[in-house]
Design goal:
Blueprint: H1 18-22, H2 25-49, H3 60-68, H4 74-95, E1 103-106, H5 109-119, H6 128-148, E2 156-159, H7 164-186
Parallel strand pairs: 1-2
């Protein structure tokens, strides 16, 4: 099942208006969680009860990345991390579901920078060093997320330089392995 993306209309952080960047990370996080909760109640809850395999582009990690993006205040970001951690744990327990599998594509900084500029041409006026700092910050946040949030599964990193077919094969192999594990547990 492919029910969509709860964050498909969020503005890219490097293009934020000044007032959006001035919001506290916890404010942005709670706004994202409102979207996520609405998305889950409308699109996912009934599918989760059927034990369907569901693919969603963008989820809780995206909420945290959006919340803490472009913020240089470590204390405020740490508060957002702790709040997000508690919300994730609570939702998983409340819904009696296991943590999702994350498939994260990775590319080198130059490739990512070129993709950002291609998608957002106005950012060519931004110094490359600023875009690179943002990319490195996001990579660090992703690594920290899976280290600090203990109830998440280890992510599956996929090289964005692979062919689409190879990337899909990697995802399918993990999904098939998880389905086999589920069958063995049920037996």
């Amino acid at each position: 099942m492919f029910p969509g993306n709860p964050f498909d209309r969020l503005p890219f952080p490097l293009t934020w208006e000044r007032d959006r960047g001035a919001d506290a990370p916890t404010t942005r996080l709670l706004e994202c969680w409102t979207r996520l909760d609405r998305f889950c109640s409308r699109n996912l809850c009934s599918l989760l009860r059927t034990k369907s395999v569901i693919f969603v582009h963008g989820f809780g990690l995206d909420a945290l990345l959006h919340a803490t993006a472009c913020v240089d205040c470590e204390t405020a970001n740490d508060e957002a991390f702790r709040l997000h951690n508690g919300l994730v744990r609570l939702r998983l327990q409340e819904q009696n579901i296991e943590a999702p599998e994350y498939f994260i594509t990775r590319a080198d900084v130059r490739t990512l920078d070129a993709r950002i500029v291609k998608r957002y041409p106005a950012l060519t006026d931004m110094p490359q060093a600023a875009r690179t700092r943002f990319i490195r910050y996001e990579e660090g946040t992703i690594n920290t997320y899976f280290r600090r949030i203990k109830h998440q599964k280890e992510p599956h990193f996929i090289d964005a330089g692979e062919t689409v077919e190879n990337m899909v094969e990697q995802v399918v192999a993990v999904v098939m392995r998880r389905l086999q594990e589920r069958k063995l547990l049920a037996a």
